[in-house]
Amino acid sequence: MTTWHWFQPVSFQLIWVSTVLGGNQWLVVPLFLMCLHFVLSPCRREDIKVLPLALMGVALDATLTHLGVFRFPQSPIWLLVLWFGFVLNFGHSLKFLRKLRIFWLIVIGSVGGCYAYLASWKLDAVVLPFGVLTTACVLAVCWAIIFPILVKADLYIRREDVRGKNHS
């Protein structure tokens, strides 16, 4: 097993913890880890191409914040960084998701996405003005939609990049 195979999933967990616990004050940690990601990644070019997918998540969070579902103690620049770190996983440690049926992506997305935000709430990174139950339901629906889209979009972008290399 190469360094990359353990570094990538562990680094994302460190990115998640450092952004959620440290907020904007600890941004140097996730930014450093993402730089290491690009140094060690076996497919830097593809990783760069999927980064814009993070903007879907940022837009979702901005919308939910605007609607009052979330409230942050500070402007959450860390959340932007977290989204960029998150989308990098689809081509690596979350690659196995590509083989799952849409139904399972919906289930995993709704449960996993909801869990991540509720854990963030428990760690005081976000305030949930509508309460836990209402927010959990909103998150479950949003993540049931966005998660399969992210998985399929990552696959499409990475396949197109490979096709482009083969035709060059």
Kindly describe this structure.
- With 168 residues, the chain is mostly helical.
- The model has no long low-confidence stretch (mean pLDDT 94).
- The chain contains seven helices and no strands.
- It is 72% helix and 0% strand.
Structural key phrases:
72% helix; globular
Q: Give the biggest beta sheet.
A: none
Low-confidence runs: none
How big is the Rg? 16 Å
Query: What distance lies between the first and last C-alpha atoms, to the nearest angstrom?
Result: 32 Å
Shape: globular
The portion of residues assigned to helices is over 70%
How many individual β-strands?
0
Strand content: under 5%
Order of helices and strands: HHHHHHH
Mean pLDDT: 94
Task: Figure out the total of helices.
Answer: 7
Q: How would you classify the helix and strand content by structural class?
A: mainly alpha
List the helices and strands and how they pair.
Elements (H helix, E strand, L loop, with lengths): L2 H20 L5 H13 L3 H7 L3 H13 L10 H11 L14 H21 L9 H36 L1
Helix pairs in contact: 1-2, 1-5, 3-7, 4-5, 6-7
What's the short story on this structure?
By secondary structure, this protein is mainly alpha-helical.
